[in-house]
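Lab notebook, page 48
Experiment: co-folding of the full assembly
Goal: obtain a model of how the components sit together before planning crosslinking
Operator: M.T.
Materials (sequences as entered):
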Amino acid sequence: MHSIEHVPAQKMREFIERCLARLGLPRRDAGAVAELMTEADLQGADGHGIFRLPQYVRRIQAGAVNVRPNIHLERERSAMALVHGDNGMGHLVMKFAAHTAIAKARTAGSAWVGVKMSNHAGPASLYAKMAMREDMIGLYLAVGNANHLPPWGGLEMLLSTNPIAVAIPGGDEPPIVLDMAPTVAAYGKVKVRAQRGEMMPEGWMVDREGRPLTDPRRMAEGLLLPIGGYKGYGLALVFGLLAGTLNGAAMGRAVVDFNADDSSVTNTGHAIVALDISAFDEVDAFKARVDDIARQMRSAERMKGVERIWLPGEQSQAKHAQRLRDGVPLAPALRRALDELAAELGVESLG
Amino acid sequence: MHSIEHVPAQKMREFIERCLARLGLPRRDAGAVAELMTEADLQGADGHGIFRLPQYVRRIQAGAVNVRPNIHLERERSAMALVHGDNGMGHLVMKFAAHTAIAKARTAGSAWVGVKMSNHAGPASLYAKMAMREDMIGLYLAVGNANHLPPWGGLEMLLSTNPIAVAIPGGDEPPIVLDMAPTVAAYGKVKVRAQRGEMMPEGWMVDREGRPLTDPRRMAEGLLLPIGGYKGYGLALVFGLLAGTLNGAAMGRAVVDFNADDSSVTNTGHAIVALDISAFDEVDAFKARVDDIARQMRSAERMKGVERIWLPGEQSQAKHAQRLRDGVPLAPALRRALDELAAELGVESLG
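Observation: model returned without errors.
Model output:
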């Protein structure tokens, strides 16, 4: 192992903001994106934070992303909205959509907000957690920005690693935050392995003959494997129909591979659902029940060799606390890419 | 193979109705449950239809299910409701809940209805499809009625095979109906194998040492495996929190194992979400997009040896048509159990 540099979150946030502002995003928008991207790194979503910055910059420079979007409601009822993202940065579009869902759920009890004409928005949990912080349950779905998954039995990659996130507040216990793709591994994890020069375990990908593929440098010729075989295919399909097709956003062959293509508009789709807990019960009573369930899971008898039973999101929270304290680890290759970016944009480097 | 008897759906429906009416359900309620149970058998959910009748009868006879429930709204807002099932048959409670969600979504655009004090309601897709028939998207979650899944790394079975169903209408193509448990196999499938005297494939269950368990007669000492390892554990947990804990219904250690216990009230929880497609777009335009996605999947290049790519729910629909024509196959052991039931209740047998 190389010794890995650790960068304070605040420095990271400021660097991202500088880069995006230089590209023409209003300072406030650049700051909002930077905050969410840094949050992704803090919680350990290494494939979704600053790692994506060079790609975002290339896409903005190529005119594929609108730096001054008019994000607005295209359709609306008391418990739904369709947000038109005007091809803005996905983080900004999704923040708007989550706030819309929260405001509507406050009155209606629940709200479902669909999104079209957005872009890659980082880890799914960011937006589910926005509802959670308002004592709501947040549920988020998205169409990923590159197809890596064929339908079950197929070879043509028609589906992305369409993720789901569900965020449920606890009381004394940490919240339960599930954030997962319906594939054994997310593509971002494959990319991180490739950048770090590490091999993948068997079961993440197969080649076109169905043989295990473990070298991430060969990822372009591989297929991701869905969880539970045909079940994970079904989840990816249905999440894509809900987050993409319902909203008039890209799905199937219309999905732009944003790893290979810097200049096409992606028309990314998302969906965010907010559920107002106080409509169902006293919020504290609900949180106490969530705590009880969390403790039941954690205290279950363990299989031999298992040191601890984790709740979804618990490891991210531990990582968040640790990284806030010690800084975010940056692989040398990523550090070099960010320094080159700073030089190219003529902004102060990460420091 | 024995030659398997095939029973016309109509006869099956009438038999179930006779049995339930004899036990004190109002004739109309008995008919409604019988129709949904028969529908389960028609669509191939063999572990969820008439197969469950002897168990339902035992539970009603033991006073564990209320045959004349006052199913009502305990809480309500414009886009949510909490249904109190008054311990009625789950099919009746869920039918009420689905109709409530549909009515609210018609105005609000979407609605989330939680359910408490219900019972086992058969296959998840039944209720998601109720919304679908109204040109809505239906999403259903439930807490299963027996814990068969430990948290990841654990041995104590604290989670059930909490299912999800999503039903999305197509235009010229059949609808897309996903109905799955976040385990590699549903427990009902294990029970059907046991009754048929068939072995299970490796990967469905493990014993307490983590070794593959393939003999369904040993199911009581086995643990079901979640799809994608910790991911399926996360899905089962989160679906249970949404369908159970949020509604004040059983979850975790409070779940009654209704296979071992005929007399305890289960306080089963469900959730049903209805999304009004017309709030998002012209319904026909949406359905045309769903058709396009279905055709993309079906026409994808296939792996060697794969004859056809299926859409979720397509095989159930094919089975439904075939069983409506040829009758529902009944294993000899199940046939004997139903004949004994008829004799015990003093009703006309299946014929």
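Interpretation: Residues 2 and 332 of chain A are 8 Å apart (CA to CA).
Next step: discuss with group before ordering constructs.
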